[in-house]
């Protein structure tokens, strides 16, 4: 898709997606109130002392497994630099230049731009304790750092050159040696080879290399080589995506996958004179763009599985512009409304300077687009099934039911095949916990020792001590589904997701009866005892358990109740939420209710109204 165009495309323009600060007319078109906020944010960092980064900070990851000690310092340098750059662009009086120059110098003096957790040259191999400064490595954050300093220098080139021409020279030197030469002369796994599986790294790194490269004047042959190599990588990335556009890493990672593909397209299209514009009309690209609105539940919540958090981030300029380019007015309206509801229009924690510039120049348009539609209420998204991942989503005016079929070989996988989540009136009822802060263990052979990755902490059964296992072969089988005005449902066989047990069959059927209840029916066959088949049910609120008839009822304050018919209440556990990443999604402790089978079948009935 990209390669064919890239081989024929000619470089017809320099980078000017967004104007440099010296173009005062363009920058003054940004609403004054927005520019004033940029200036006030920059003023917070005047005379700021950037945090020192020591070799021992880098070594800490290999010694303790902790990622945040180093990354907090590194990322802070970038976000502060961004704030100072945008404040100077908004005001353009030189007040912030000293801080900007300090930030650029310190970043260019860093021994390496990659984070310690990525400090290896071969995929999935142990990290080196320190960087090899003679052999620059391009990981996610080295590429993003390249884009940050490149964009900072591009935006303020005229002002920086009035101080000294050596600032731009230093940036060019660092980009050439840390990014462009390694990119063209080496091969990193995320570039793709047509064999190895790709993930968000491919589009994310490629986007940032393109920003770093085309914000400056390069020889024509070098420009052409970068375009063609980038196009090859983007094609490898797209080959991993299903035609349905579903991001198997979830809504949170869509921001690092689908949206980075979008910005890579933006840069390529602009510097190649519109050569890539036809791709925005391709069904696959349109589906990738639309995924985020289809995965949205309500407010800040999204359907989540694997490492994705249910709080997947607010929409903004990138989603809005992707909808604009693909002609998806529903995506544009959804992104604009979500942006208007967000308190952080400035994206203060965003590392990538270009994203923040996009937001500044799109702000006025997003504040107005679709307001009439928003006032009359957004149209409810249609029920959908994504064959590429097995993700099923059904809705009515009160419920959102999501079920994941597929297999346990997704990128950022959790062993969660067959699990479900339920939202009622936009609030989480049955939940997927998400993932804790990343550590060395997260992406290691011990990954599935972490509780959040295990099927017993999803809405799934366990058979004695047997849980689901990771791998493509551990999957749902015989998946069937139907969607209609009266009911939407999905059914599957889950026994194959478990490595060893006496269960020969475990069938799950999940149905949203529109205007009625959600009914999840599980039936098992095998030689074991029913009491050893135990369902885990994860809830945000503490359930009040009441025994009734042939089962029990779970009363959830503010959310109503559900009946567990044919189930025996074993116990309810309170799970402390102490991890900082989990705290962003769950403001208090969560709960796991265990229910054993009394016989061969259990029904979970989630009632629409209290009864």
Give the distance, in angstroms, between the N- and C-terminal Cα atoms.
55 Å
CATH superfamily placement of the largest domain: Chondroitin AC/alginate lyase
Spans of at least 5 consecutive residues whose pLDDT stays below 50 are: none
Overall 3D shape: globular
Helix content bin: 25-40%
Cα radius of gyration in angstroms: 25 Å
Level-1 CATH class name of the largest domain:
Mainly Alpha
β-strand number:
21
Count structural domains: 2
Q: In the CATH scheme, what's the topology name of the largest domain?
A: Glycosyltransferase
Strand order of the largest sheet: 11-12-13-14-21-18-17-16
State the major sheet: 8 strands, antiparallel
Helix segment tally: 19
Which second-level CATH architecture of the largest domain applies? Alpha/alpha barrel
How confident overall, as mean pLDDT?
Answer: 95
Helix and strand composition category: alpha+beta
The fraction of residues in strands falls at 15-25%
List the helices and strands and how they pair.
Elements: H1 2-8, H2 24-27, H3 32-43, H4 55-64, H5 68-91, H6 97-109, H7 140-155, H8 157-163, H9 166-185, H10 200-214, H11 220-240, H12 251-254, H13 258-271, H14 283-294, E1 296-298, E2 301-302, H15 317-326, H16 329-341, H17 353-368, H18 371-376, E3 384-386, E4 391-395, E5 399-404, E6 407-408, E7 420-424, E8 427-430, E9 461-463, E10 471-475, E11 477-483, E12 487-493, E13 503-513, E14 518-526, E15 533-539, E16 543-548, E17 551-556, E18 560-565, E19 567-575, H19 580-583, E20 590-597, E21 601-606
Antiparallel strand pairs: 1-2, 3-4, 4-5, 5-7, 6-10, 7-8, 9-15, 11-12, 12-13, 13-14, 14-21, 15-20, 16-17, 17-18, 18-21, 19-20
């Amino acid at each position: 898709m990209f390669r064919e165009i890239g081989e024929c495309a000619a470089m017809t323009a320099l980078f000017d997606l967004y104007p440099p600060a010296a173009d005062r007319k363009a920058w003054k078109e940004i609403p004054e109130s927005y520019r004033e906020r940029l200036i006030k944010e920059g003023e917070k960092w005047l005379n700021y002392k950037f945090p020192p980064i020591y070799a021992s900070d880098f070594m800490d990851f290999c010694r303790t497994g902790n990622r945040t000690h180093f990354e907090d310092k590194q990322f802070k340098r970038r976000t502060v630099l961004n704030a100072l750059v945008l404040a100077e662009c908004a005001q353009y009086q030189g007040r912030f230049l000293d801080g900007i120059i300090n930030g650029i110098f310190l970043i260019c003096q860093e021994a390496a731009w990659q984070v310690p957790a990525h400090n290896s040259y071969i995929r999935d191999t142990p990290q080196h304790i320190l960087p090899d400064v003679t052999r620059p490595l391009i990981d996610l954050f080295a590429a993003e750092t390249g884009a940050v300093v490149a964009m900072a220098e591009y935006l303020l080139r005229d002002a920086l050159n009035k101080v000294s021409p050596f600032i731009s020279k230093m940036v060019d030197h660092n980009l050439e040696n840390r990014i462009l030469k390694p990119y063209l002369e080496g091969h990193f796994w995320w570039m793709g080879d047509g064999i190895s599986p790709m993930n968000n790294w491919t589009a994310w790194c490629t986007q940032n290399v393109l920003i770093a490269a085309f914000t400056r004047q390069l020889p024509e042959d070098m420009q052409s080589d970068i375009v063609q190599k980038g196009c090859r990588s983007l094609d490898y990335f797209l080959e991993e995506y299903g035609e349905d556009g579903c991001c198997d890493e979830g809504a949170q990672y869509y921001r690092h996958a689908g949206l980075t593909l979008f910005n890579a397209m933006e840069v390529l299209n602009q510097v190649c004179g519109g050569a890539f514009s036809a791709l925005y009309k391709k069904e696959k690209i349109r589906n990738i763009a639309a995924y985020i609105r289809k995965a949205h539940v309500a407010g800040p919540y999204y359907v989540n599985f694997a490492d994705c958090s249910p709080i997947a981030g607010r929409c903004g300029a990138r989603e809005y512009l992707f909808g604009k380019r693909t002609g998806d007015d529903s995506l544009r309206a959804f992104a604009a409304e979500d942006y208007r509801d967000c308190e952080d229009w400035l994206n203060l924690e965003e590392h990538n300077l270009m994203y923040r510039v996009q937001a500044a120049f799109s702000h006025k348009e997003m504040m107005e687009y679709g307001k009439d539609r928003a006032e009359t209420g957004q149209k409810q998204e249609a029920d959908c099934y994504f064959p590429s991942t097995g993700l099923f989503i059904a809705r009515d005016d009160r419920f959102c039911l999501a079920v994941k079929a597929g297999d346990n070989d997704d990128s950022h996988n959790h062993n969660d095949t067959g699990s479900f989540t339920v939202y009622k009136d936009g609030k989480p009822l049955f939940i997927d916990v998400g993932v804790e802060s990343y550590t060395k263990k997260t992406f290691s052979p011990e990954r599935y020792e972490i509780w959040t990755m295990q099927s017993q902490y999803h809405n799934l059964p366990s058979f004695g001590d047997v849980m689901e296992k990771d791998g493509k072969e551990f999957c749902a089988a015989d998946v069937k589904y139907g969607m209609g005005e009266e009911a939407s449902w999905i059914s599957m066989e889950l026994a194959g997701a478990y490595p060893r047990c006496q269960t020969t069959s475990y069938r799950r059927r999940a149905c949203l009866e529109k205007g009625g209840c959600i009914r999840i029916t599980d039936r098992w066959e095998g030689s074991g005892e029913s009491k050893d088949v135990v369902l885990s049910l994860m809830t945000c609120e503490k359930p009040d358990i009441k025994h009734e008839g042939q089962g029990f009822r779970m009363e959830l304050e503010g959310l109503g109740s559900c009946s567990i018919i044919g189930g025996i209440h074993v116990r309810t556990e309170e799970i402390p939420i102490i991890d900082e990443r989990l705290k962003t999604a769950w403001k208090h402790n969560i709960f796991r209710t265990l229910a054993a089978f009394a016989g061969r079948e259990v029904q979970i009935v989630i009632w629409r109204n209290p009864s």
